[in-house]
Design brief:
Pectate Lyase C-like; globular; 2 domains; alpha/beta; two-stranded antiparallel sheet; TBCC_N; Methane Monooxygenase Hydroxylase, Chain G, domain 1; acetylation; 15-stranded mixed beta sheet; TBCC_N_sf; chaperone; phosphoprotein
């Protein structure tokens, strides 16, 4: 009777599989893993090279266009008003295009490059405002104030029509003090500006407390300074919103860029096509823009903002540089707590 030979079986092996076959299989797997790792390193290197090339292209193109705008603004110095006006319009259009170019390039820019470009844009926007105000004579400004008690509309001269809001200076975050669209030094009133009053102008709100403000239309820029316990709703801002010293308030606005300083306990309902920036802030919370009014779509078209791009929850805190850790200075408003209906 023939002896019965047992078939050797090893974990993970096949019946009758020789040691040489298993060694060959392991070598093949190791070779494949090395090849895949080499391919990943190659792709990463190529991706880095592409990013560097894109960064160089952005820097060259951005600086060239910025210099062109600066030269255009410089040519306004000493020129007649008839000459300054079209040059300012051209500079404004070019600045908006430069802002769009920056927004489209954000994915491959470093934080340093992004901050430098944003600072350069802010400087251009401030220069445009200053030159526009120098070229236009200051006008006596009136506003409509509607008190909650009487709900009546009355015209009254702005307390700040002939005096600066901040003594010792002639600008508020880059906005000229003589900017025509503004509300200043008011308490416990309802304030409204129509699209016709606002369209493509710079709007300044300063030293307001316990006020409800409705800004229809599409401003060029919006500046908020020294705001306390207010509700401010604004139509699409074609470029930037600047906020400084705001507390215990609710704000809603679409814009290309948001910069917020020295702000506490404030809710922001936001549509922003770049990224929001906060500095020296705490207790600031964000949610998607939810205010609506009959001509909102038309104002979005006029502003040039992309309705499909909203980075409301992507916030850069310049006081919090810990990578991978969320800043404690801002939060997202829970869906259940978000405001979706607004009083007229």
């Amino acid at each position: 009777m023939d002896a019965t030979h047992e078939v050797s079986r090893e974990p993970g092996g096949f019946a009758g599989e020789s040691g040489a076959d298993k060694i060959q299989e392991r070598l093949q797997k190791r070779h494949q893993a090395r090849a895949e790792d080499a391919e990943r390193r190659k792709e990463a290197k190529e991706s880095m090279s592409v990013a560097e090339e894109k960064g160089e292209y952005f820097s060259t193109s951005f600086n060239t266009e910025r210099a062109s705008i600066e030269e255009l603004l410089s040519s306004c110095s000493g020129a007649d008003r008839a000459v300054v006006t079209p040059r300012l319009e051209e500079a404004t259009a070019k600045t908006l295009q430069l802002q769009k170019f920056l927004n489209d390039s954000m994915l491959f820019l470093t934080q340093y490059e992004l901050r430098r470009a944003q600072a350069a844009l802010q400087k251009l926007q401030s220069s445009i405002v200053e030159i526009r105000e120098e070229a236009q004579p200051r006008k006596k400004f009136t506003f409509r104030a509607r008190t909650k008690a009487t709900d009546k509309v009355s015209d009254a001269p702005s307390p700040e029509a002939d005096t600066p809001a901040d003594s010792g200076g002639n600008k508020v975050d880059g906005a000229a003090e003589s900017v025509q669209c503004r509300f200043s030094d008011l308490d416990n009133v309802c304030l409204t500006k129509t699209a016709e009053e606002i369209q493509k102008r710079d709007v300044l709100l300063t030293h307001l407390s316990n006020c409800k403000v409705r800004l229809f239309g599409s401003p060029s820029t919006l500046h908020l300074k020294h705001i306390d316990s207010c509700e401010i709703l604004c139509g699409p801002v074609s470029s930037s919103v600047f906020i400084d010293h705001c507390t215990n308030s609710t704000l809603a606005m679409p814009c290309q860029q948001l910069r917020t300083h020295n702000t506490t306990d404030t809710k922001v309902y936001l549509h922003v096509t770049s990224r929001a920036i906060i500095e020296d802030c705490h207790g600031v919370s964000f949610a998607p823009f939810s205010w609506s009014y009959p001509t909102l779509e038309e104002d979005f078209d006029l502003s040039g903002l992309d309705r499909d791009r909203n980075n409301w929850s992507q916030v850069d805190d310049f006081n919090w540089l810990a990578a991978g850790t969320h800043s404690p200075n801002w939060t997202v408003i829970p869906e259940a707590d978000r405001k979706t209906t607004w009083d007229p």
